[in-house]
């Protein structure tokens, strides 16, 4: 039937429709930037493409006079290291406790209320506590991301585990599977796609907590650089850094999506 819900764009249409919002956003920026610079050549709010290009070249390809480092890549390396470690630990905690809560009733009765309570604590509210307890080093920044991401992953995987058909559990136990074998051979294989989805959904929050921690106490990092130059209204630095953070997050999301499709094709919708 020719209803809107049944019509799907082709491959070319998907590309055009997907690019359209970006093209409109860039066009709007160029129009307003030209208008503001025409009225005030010294305007810093919407710098021209030439100014942006010059700033990117300075930060990404020239050494800093004070430190001798190329600041853009030093900041990128520091931020990626923090967020990848935090997401890796969060994924490990999510799988371990999520499966245990979802499969073993005694563990659920003991930990589920605690995990639910922790997941509702605003992570940024405990940031001062982390800095006092863990200091101003890397540990506090990584812990903030873990506190903000891991409890949500645990609850998500636990709920998904509880949704598995009871018949699967009964059949596995009938065939002699122990609790450990039940988790390893029946539950865990079905949880890997969900873990990837949980990681993808947590990327935005993870970057938020990372930037917040870097803004308060750090000497390098993408968030640190943005908040360092804000006092000078350096939008020619802030805008490229924000765009680069978006590109990094989008790339991480795309890589996780590819891993899910290639590693677990049976879990894709419609298969």
Description:
This protein is an all-alpha fold. The chain folds into two domains: 4-39; 52-267, MetI-like fold (Orthogonal Bundle). It is built from ten helices and no strands. The chain has helices at 11-39, 49-61, 71-103, 105-119, 127-134, 138-162, 166-174, 179-216, 222-229, 235-263.
Keywords:
MetI-like fold; 2 domains; 0% strand
Topology readout:
Elements: H1 11-39, H2 49-61, H3 71-103, H4 105-119, H5 127-134, H6 138-162, H7 166-174, H8 179-216, H9 222-229, H10 235-263
Helix pairs in contact: 2-10, 3-4, 3-6, 3-8, 3-9, 4-6, 5-6, 6-8, 8-9, 8-10, 9-10
Q: What separation lies between the terminal Cα atoms? A: 23 Å
For the record, the CATH architecture of the largest domain stands as: Orthogonal Bundle
Element string (H = helix, E = strand): HHHHHHHHHH
Mean pLDDT over all positions = 87
**How many domains, as an integer?**
2
Question: Any idea what the radius of gyration is?
Answer: 23 Å
Short description:
76% of the residues lie in helices and 0% in strands.
């Amino acid at each position: 039937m020719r209803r809107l819900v049944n019509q799907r764009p082709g491959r070319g249409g998907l590309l055009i429709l997907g690019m359209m919002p970006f093209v409109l956003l860039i066009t709007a920026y160029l129009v307003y930037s030209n208008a503001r610079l025409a009225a005030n050549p010294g305007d810093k709010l919407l710098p021209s493409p030439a100014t942006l290009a010059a700033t990117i070249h300075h930060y990404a390809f020239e050494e800093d006079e004070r430190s001798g480092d190329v600041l853009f890549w030093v900041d990128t390396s520091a931020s990626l290291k923090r967020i990848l470690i935090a997401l890796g630990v969060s994924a490990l905690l999510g799988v371990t406790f999520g499966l245990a809560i979802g499969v073993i009733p005694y563990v659920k009765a003991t930990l589920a209320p605690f995990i639910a309570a922790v997941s509702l604590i605003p992570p940024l509210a405990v940031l001062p506590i982390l800095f006092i307890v863990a200091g101003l080093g890397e540990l506090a920044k990584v812990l903030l991301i873990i506190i903000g991401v891991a409890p949500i992953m645990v609850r998500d995987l636990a709920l998904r585990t509880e949704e598995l058909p009871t018949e699967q559990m009964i059949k596995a136990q009938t065939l002699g599977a122990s609790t450990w074998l039940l988790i390893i051979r029946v539950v865990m294989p079905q949880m890997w796609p969900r873990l990837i989805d949980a990681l993808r959904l947590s990327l935005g929050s993870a970057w938020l907590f990372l930037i917040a921690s870097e803004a308060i106490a750090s000497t390098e990092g993408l968030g640190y650089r943005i908040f360092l130059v804000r006092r000078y209204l350096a939008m020619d630095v802030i805008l490229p850094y924000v765009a680069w953070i978006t590109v990094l997050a989008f790339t991480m999301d795309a890589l996780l999506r590819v891993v899910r499709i290639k590693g677990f094709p049976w879990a894709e919708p419609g298969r």
